[in-house]
Specification:
The chain is mainly alpha-helical and 124 residues long. Helices cover 43% and strands 0% of the residues.
Length: 124
């Protein structure tokens, strides 16, 4: 295999390993403040209108013990992976999970969504 082909193959492997939705966590903190902070806190154990988002990435849906979730979310068996968050937050909450209590129209700006999810991954 030529040197050029080896470099191309390595670049392909690196790209395949890179997160599908890599974003800027620092910019995501600003997105959180404008899009989410009215209803959600990032401090562990601090619920507002919505549950705390501390540790959200990797957490099973409807699992904060001291928050009253909708039946619609309790019936889901999601894990809040970056991919699941991307799907959920990129559309209106009532479309993503009919019957939810969450009132959110979705975040359609792909860069802001990637930044937000990168920020949410830092909350642990």
């Amino acid at each position: 295999m030529s040197h050029g082909l080896r470099l191309a193959a390595m670049a392909t492997l690196v790209a395949a390993w890179a997160p599908a939705h890599a974003g800027d966590a620092k910019a995501g903190a600003d997105v959180f403040k404008s899009e989410c902070a009215e209803c959600h806190a990032v401090k562990e154990g601090r619920n507002k209108k919505g549950p705390s988002l501390f540790g959200i990435v990797g957490r099973p849906s409807a699992s904060v013990t001291d928050y009253a979730y909708s039946d619609a979310l309790k019936s889901r068996q999601w894990t809040w992976t970056p991919e699941q968050l991307h799907t959920y937050l990129s559309q209106p909450a009532k479309t993503a999970n009919p019957g939810t209590k969450m009132k959110y129209d979705g975040l359609t700006d792909a860069k802001q969504l990637d930044d937000l999810i990168s920020y949410l991954q830092t909350l642990h």
